[in-house]
Design goal:
CATH superfamily of the largest domain: FAD/NAD(P)-binding domain
Family: Belongs to the NADH dehydrogenase family.
Oligomer: single chain
Strand content: 15-25%
InterPro entries: FAD/NAD-bd_sf, FAD/NAD-binding_dom, NADH-Q_oxidoreductase
Structural class: alpha/beta
CATH architecture of the largest domain: 3-Layer(bba) Sandwich
Distance between the termini: 23 Å
Strand order of the largest sheet: 3-2-1-7-18
Largest sheet: 5 strands, parallel
Shape: globular
Number of strands: 22
Radius of gyration: 21 Å
Number of helices: 9
GO biological process, one term: aerobic electron transport chain
Pfam families: Pyr_redox_2 (PF07992)
Keywords: FAD, Flavoprotein, Oxidoreductase
Amino acid sequence: MKHRIVVLGAGYAGAIAAGRLAKRLHRDDVSITLVNAGTEFVERVRLHQLASGQDLRPRPLRDLFAGTGVELRTARVAAVDVERNTVDLGDETLGYDTLVYALGSTAADQGVPGVAEYAYDVAGKQSALRLRARLGELDAGGTVLVVGGGLTGIEAATEIAEARPDLKVALAAGGRVGGWLSDKAQRHLRGALDRLGVTVHDHADIARVEADGVVTGAGTEIEAQVTVWTAGFTVHPIAAATTLEVSESGRIVVDGSMRSVSHPDVYAVGDAALAEGAGGGQLRMSCASAGPMAWMAADAIAARLTGREVRETTIGYTFQCISLGRRDGIIQRVTPDDQVTSSVVTGRTAARIKELVCAGGFWGVTQPTMMLPSRRRHVAVPGSSPARG
């Protein structure tokens, strides 16, 4: 009987994990099923481009996994039962021997009234397309407010401002927009925002979102025909509804091999997992974390199934990339534990590097072994669960 591996979610983490497993394990011994709500791989790092009116190249999953032996299942996950080793897809139930949970994250309203009713986001393809359609309805002089001074907010505001110079774009943050960046990077960011005509509202805690703008905690009203919410992400509640050990935020707690600390036949990767990185801090929700986490999980599963040594390495960071439209950017060098340094690349060179990073993220999905030779090994005992060591 084949060992059944089910991967939930075909974002960066899930797609890379499925492809890497297919190149590590022999098809005679395992079946790999990849479950995803849509039929395409979505380049999430480019969704601000899609929202601003640019067209992205379609990435059908059937093309990406053709000839790999990975079975694709288009369905939404309704529930997971980690005691019975089953996944509920609504109209059918899948059984598994090993589960890779990679359902990712979505926009978080942070409990702010009106976000769900009136705000747009760029956390998924459909929500980005919804924002794109709304922006297309705005006449010259229309007002857009992006809430959130992190990477997503900065990229969304600058992309919209560059694509639609006829609009009045503003960016609001609870702290200082880009405040974590080095001094040089912050100066370049402010210059880019000024050049693009983006109005900045620092230290503007949003108390509620309304149909025609927002109200801050201090009672200040900021008018906007369109409010774009980028103030954080949250994971899907499916894991928290199981007996898996999860964090307060609902992320699955994993060890150094991305294996659940409570259920050894479950692995979690990407935004859905709470993992320790360099320096003992938590890995942040990002594409930069998703790839390495997927490699580690896939290699650990393959090693345990084939009776080989499980190698654990600490995931660390190198830089943070920020696009400021299509012709400008910031590459902020960071330490392995994600602390900024004084080393920064800006301007067109940074924009080119950011584009290479985005293209490399997709390349990593299509080449999940990252230049390593494919070594499909036989499972020690087909149909068995991975060793608990």
